Structures are given as structure tokens and as C-alpha cells.
Amino acid sequence: MSLKSRKVCSVMKKSTIGIIFLFVVIVLVAVSLSKKQHVLKDRKISVAVTTFSLYDITKHIVGQSVKVVNILPFGVDPHDYEPTPKTMADIEKASLVLYSGAGLEPWTHGFSFKNKVIDISQFMELRELEEGEEHEHRHEVVDPHYWLSFSNMAKATQLITDELIKILPENKSLYIKNRDDYLRMLRELDTQFKNRLAKCERDTIIVNHNAFGYLAQKYNFHVESLSGLSPDAQPNAKNIIRLMDTIKEHNVSTVFFESFASDRAIKSIAKEAHTLADVLYPLGNITSKEASKGLTYENLMEENLHKLSKALSCR
To answer: In angstroms, how far is CA 142 from the centroid of its own chain?
Structure first.
């Protein structure tokens, strides 16, 4: 082979090796990028929420696209809850924290949130307590149970959707569709409550915990409670006598308690007054059993409507 031919072969061999090396590099880079993209795809952004109503809204909007951290364990009263160290760590990791506000979560005062946090109550229409209510409710001036107003729930739904779109704009169309479905459900609930509670023979319900002021104000009935806004407040003899008189005066057929609050006092009143006792859902939280059944805000509000309609003898 001539010297010229050997040089040509040598150049071709080097060129082939260079091409192979470049191909290997491209493949390695592609595999690396694929792994990174896969990790990013699998690593979900988390949103931490308090109260069952905020949890229900957020879960319906995000579907499977975001991990929703439920700060408040099912079956625990939101009024006096303090997060555990593990929960606090989950809150720190969350890209967004949504809390109910209006005095419902005292633990948030002085808590240092790492990322964005929103007090939902700041955007709601809050019911001011009526004269005399403040004396039983730790001197608060507003009722924190605003999620029992469908218009407030609609505002919260819009607000949460907007914040989620800021975090994950690529899911905008999904979130808007789910938002619209949720808003439609709230409008349908409002219509059902208006129709079912329009004509009733009775006008008063008795509960152990006055979480139902927003419903009463909107749909024109009265609420008398044993322990005020806090379900853990201790009933006294004066309140028990007052409720016994109310039962007699308004011909009350049913007294209500909560599924995870003490029902001893309210059941005792029901027995003494010869009335029924039943569960009504304030939806600050739900029990583990209710959660395991997959019950939603819609399901439980429909159940509330059925029980209210029956207790008020509505036509």
C-alpha cells in the first residue's frame, strides 16, 4: 500500500472513531436528560391545607397533578389543633400553604412559613357575631365557619385555582375545567337549599356547637347552641335550661351534635325533652371513617340539607 493510501486510511479511521465517540456522548447526554425529566415528572409539587373544605376544593381542582398535604388529621377539632413536628416539616416543604384564618388556627400566629401562605378568610365575607354571642366565644367578633356559605366557597375555589395556575401554568386548562365543575356543584347546592328550605313549619334548630350561622342567615332559620362557637366549651346549667325552654317553645323535633365532638350533654337534653338526636356536619373537619368512605363536601352538605329539612318540617 502506498504512503498516500496509508494516510487516507489513517484519516478515515480517526474520523470514524470521532463519529463513534460523538454518538456515544450524544446518547449519554440524552439518557441523562431523560432521567432528569423523569425525576422532575415524578416529583410532585405539594400544597398544604387546613380544614376539610379547603382540602375538598384543592383535591377536586388538582386531581393527581399535585400532592395535597392535609395538615389537620381527620377526626380532630380544628379549633384547638397544634401541628406535629412531622406536619410542620411537610408545611415547610409545601410550595403553597392555605389556611382557613378568622381565628380558627391559633398555631399560625408567629409561625414562620418558608414559601407562600394565604389566609383564605381575608378574601371571604365574614358573618359578624350577633349581640351576646361574643360572651360565649372567646371574644371573637366574626364567625370562622365561612365555608358553610356557598358564595364564600365559590370565592375560595376561584382564589385557589388562580394560585395553582401560578405554580403550574402548564395545567391551566385542567384547573379551569375542574374549577368550573366545582362552581357548578356549589350553585346546584345553593338551589337545592333554597328550594328545600323555602317553606318550613319550624324555624329553629338546636346544636351543641354553633357552626351553622352562615346557613341560618342565608336560608332563614334560627340556631340555638349549647356551647357556642367552640365544640369543646363546657355547657353550663343556664344554657341547658335555656335550650330545654327553646325546645318546648319552638316544638323542636331534633337536636344535633357532631360526629367527633362529645355528644353526652346534647343527648342528655334530647332524652329529657323526648326529642331525637342526630349528627349535623359543620365540615371544619370529618372523621376518619367518613374520609375512608370518600365523602365530599357535596355529599355531606346534601346530607345536612336532608336532616335540616326534616328537622324544620319543610314541605
So the answer is: 19
| Other C-beta atoms lying within 10 Å of the C-beta of residue 272 | 12
DSSP classification of residue 203: -
Question: Measured between alpha carbons, how far is 57 from 156 in angstroms, rounded to an integer?
Answer: 8
| Length, in residues, of the chain | 315
Helix (H) and strand (E) counts for the chain? 10, 10
pLDDT tens per residue, range 281-313: 999 999 999 999 999 999 999 999 999 999 999
CA distance 8 to 25: 26
229-243 pLDDT, tens digit per residue, is 666 566 778 888 999
d(CA 76, CA 284): 9
Are 146 and 124 in contact by the 8 Å Cβ rule? The answer is yes
pTM of the predicted model as reported, rounded to 2 decimal places: 0.82
Query: What domains are there in the chain, each with its CATH number?
Result: 46-193 (3.40.50.1980), 198-311 (3.40.50.1980)
Please give the Cα distance from 70 to 84 (Å, whole number).
12
* Whether the Cβ atoms of residue 252 and residue 207 lie closer than 8 Å to each other: no
Q: Are 86 and 80 in contact (CB under 8 A)?
A: no
For the chain, the C-alpha Rg in angstroms (whole number) is 29
- Three cell numbers, residue 108: 399560625
